[in-house]
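LOG
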Amino acid sequence: MSSFPGSPRLIKGGLVVIDADSARVLRIISLQYNSETLTRTLQAQSAGSEAGHPVEPMRFKGPAVETFKLEADIDATDQLEFPDQNPGATRFGIQPQLALLESLVYPSALQLSAVNAQASSGTLEIAPMLAPLVLFIWGKSRIVPVKVSDFSITEEAFDPALNPIRAKVSLGLRVLSTDDLGFSSRGGSLFMAYLQTKERLATQVQSASFATLGIGGIG
């Protein structure tokens, strides 16, 4: 961050983990460095025509399926320069930060033990373990519930004890819409707010004229 008093405050992207039932915030995860790129893919959900039949006008079956792809760098160099202030970095490198991100795709040890206890007691039907709801935050206009669809880590440097001290994390996130969460849930409300923000932003673009397209109108 710049030391000039007039410089803008650096906003970091990140993830917020909340309880799916109570909406209580469980953890806030900020990226150490913002990703240089953010790839977004949107796939329309439309009613398709059968082969051999005329193509119908676009009819939406639901919100578009949107995915995010980003890469985040994690580096312990700054912390290792001041070991007295960051003893954890000296002992573990960046393993704590990696473990925190990995917790997004693992059930907890407590959940696994509970499932094992149910199975051992003869429970015939065991419900899948519910994960907390994850929100992807990328500025004020992008606060959206997501599901971690893929996750990879490339560890690039190690200390003498083989603790990773630099890594690149690749995250694939699928937006959860009202189709997935319903309208009455906290996640559904957040998705609707995200969609309404998109609609408001679209109104900020001035409509082009026919002349811009090289025509006088549509006859």
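LOG (cont.) second protein
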Amino acid sequence: MATESTREACPPIDGALARRLIDTRFPRWAGLPLRPVEPAGSDHVIYRLGRELSVRLPRHEGAAGQAEKEFRWLPRLAPRLPLAIPIPVAVGEPAFGYPWPWAVSRWLDGETATATALGDSVETAEDLANFLTALQGLAPEGAPDELAGRPLADRDHATRAAIATCAHAFDARAMTALWEAALQAPAWHRPPVWFHGDFHTGNLLTVDGRLSAVIDFGELGFGDPARDLTIAYTLMSARSRAAFRAALDVDDATWTRGRGWALSTGLNAHVHYADVNPRVAAQTTRQIEQALIG
């Protein structure tokens, strides 16, 4: 999720611009209907193109490299993962005053997962653990250094500032204790592994009440897998979280760092979006409170 620090001036993005970009760059799709997808994310404006495609246009500079990264890596990862992921089919070039590359991918049907529907599901928790196990088992050979994940300590200043900002809404002492425990936990010393990087409830799809797909790999990278444990706090109950941890076989240090990632990213989103987006406010409140529970 983008923050104010990653935003640049965002050009106006509407259906007319999207239509012009598509028709000019990919005339073979010029006759397909185009309609907006809501709610879109903070990083992209999303359109459905015909029945089988989606178009994602970055909103800001911080998301500008995601189209090319996903185009390069997702087709390699997809065949070896147990859940569907988006398959990019083309990258569009900047044009008509729009400054960044944009992506066309295969459309994935499904409803966004919710904690209400799936939060207490042990089966879902185990499916997610199996997905992460498969992802982490794929060696990131050939991945450029810029995909290497940042250490949790790089978030220290911003997280402590967010704790202070949110002290009226959450227990500042408990947040500080959790954050310091996460920073002090032993680092990941095994070979680096792939991580999704933004593994939360909003990036999961379901069909007929079952988990069907994982989307939005814009933060894909390699290094410490702890950051993907955020899903345990955005989606799961204490019961399903225990099943998830057992299925994934997570050691204490990695679990503690994962709680730190959940706290930090939840606070970041809460600070920037809670006042203007009730949906994000509810999601991040749950994330922070569940991270404090453990």
